Amino acid sequence: MLSKTGDSSGLSGPRRSLTALAVGSVVLAGAALWTSAYVKSPAQAAADAGPPAPDVLTAPVERRVLSDTVVTRGTVSASQTVDIASAAVAVDGGAKPVVTKVLARSGQTFEAGRVLFEVSGRPVLALRGGLPVYRDLKPGAHGEDVRQLQRALRDLGHPAGTDTPGRYGPGTKKAVAAFYASIGYDPVNVDTAAADDARREVGHAQRELDRLRDRNGSADDLRYAREDLADARSALGRAEAVSGPMVPASEVVFLSGFPARVDSLTAKVGGSVGEKLATVSAGQLVLKGSLGLQDKGLVRPGQKVAMLSEVTGDELTGRVAAVADTPAAPDGDADGEDGGASAEGYAVTVKPDSALPARLVGQDVRLTVEAASSGTKVLVVPVSAISAGADSRTTVTVLGRSGDRRRVEVRPGTSGDGYTEVTPVGGARLSAGEKVVVGVARGDGAAR
User: Fold this and answer.
1) Do residues 183 and 222 share a domain?
2) Among 352, 372, 392, residue at a domain's last position
């Protein structure tokens, strides 16, 4: 008879392990089932929650003066800029002409008749006039440049007397001589030797006629002597008409307006002549800028312009004087020096309301053009508040305090700075302070 040993359950060791494993698996499976039913990841929780309720974005209806502006850059320059380069000829038997005095300085303003330099002891000065010098102005000459000289001398107190305007006669010679004396120089005289010879011929002819008269010469001899004297006097008149004080082209530059300005100065005492001595500018200072194609249609003559120099802090006003019809390449583009990086622009000229200070010459300034303006306070809404339907009606949506919405038909007007002028039509009501819908925001804060 066999006896019983081991666990009272009657299970051997291996069977007990297998049973425990099975029970553990059941427990784990149940836990997993509970977790999947009641515990969720953040992503799953967000997905199950669905999209958040949308909310509208609003902006108030306002009353304000509305303007649309175009901002560009411009450069201050004078209406006339001239390089002065003396063309003085050699003096004293071939001596090389040199600068002997510099009487101007860079940045200086000066009036008409002012001597700026001396070259080999001769003055270089400026007079008023729009026609550039292209020849020496001598006695006997005639033309518009002579008329210009006569006007310039008259303005300085030296009128040309009875000379016909545009003809360099005795009155103009007297005026030139008086002007040179007033600035401390002797005038350059031309053809004086020929006039002196003609005077001597007149003297000879007069003495011959007197001799024949004293000796009771024949009638023929007296007639011939009188004819010789008349011819000599005619020759003297012609010689005197083309002789006397002149204005050499090397001694004068004509500028359109005064006071003029010395923009840059390169002349030095002892320096050789032939190269540029200085650059001067005259006339009212103007602003010239450039517009891109997208702005060209917005800018028109007569529009207001605000000017700001970031360098000096000057703030001035002006108006658009002209806008080019065709684009022009910026400086350097013609030769490809900038690699084509700059775009073509439409030149715009601005006329200042008051004289610009000389310190702004050559400066780059900011130009703000008032392309459009309501003039007075008008009803405005953000551009995004306006919608257009298939029926071409333009409307805004007003959000009431209780959340109700109503559409208001409007007629758009001036736009600028993100706002548009609106006028209710068809008897609709729209008042400043009301809220208009400009968009819808999702619950995550993003607008649509």
Assistant:
1) no
2) 372
Flag whether 49 is in a domain: no
Task: Give the pair of three-digit tokens for residue 164.
Answer: 């016909």
CA gap 444, 448 in Å, rounded: 11
Query: Which residues of the chain are modeled with pLDDT < 70?
Result: 1-54, 86-95, 274, 329-344, 442-448
195 and 239 in contact (C-beta within 8 Å)?
A: yes
Please give the model's pTM, rounded to 2 decimal places: 0.56
Specify whether the CB–CB gap between 360 and 311 falls below 8 A: no
Expressed as residue numbers, the domain containing 235 is 192-241
Same domain, 261 and 157: yes
| 385-435 pLDDT tens trace | 998 887 878 999 999 888 899 999 999 887 777 888 899 998 889 989 999
Same structural domain for residues 415 and 269?
A: no
Q: CA torsion angle for 30, 31, 32, 37 (degrees, to 10)?
A: 90
For 286-303, what is each residue's pLDDT tens digit? 888 999 888 888 898 999
Same domain, 179 and 271: yes
Which residue in the block uniquely carries the two structure tokens 């002012």? 114
Length, in residues, of the chain: 448
Q: Tell me, what CATH number does 410's domain have?
A: 2.40.420.20
Taking the C-alpha atoms of residue 226 and residue 219, their distance in angstroms, rounded to an integer, is 11
Query: Are 412 and 317 members of one domain?
Result: no
Same domain for 257 and 149: yes
pLDDT in tens, 346-357: 999 998 898 888
Greatest alpha-carbon pair distance for the chain in Å reads 210
Q: Are residues 366 and 309 in the same domain?
A: yes
Looking from the CA of 90 toward its CB, the CA atoms found within 13 Å total 5
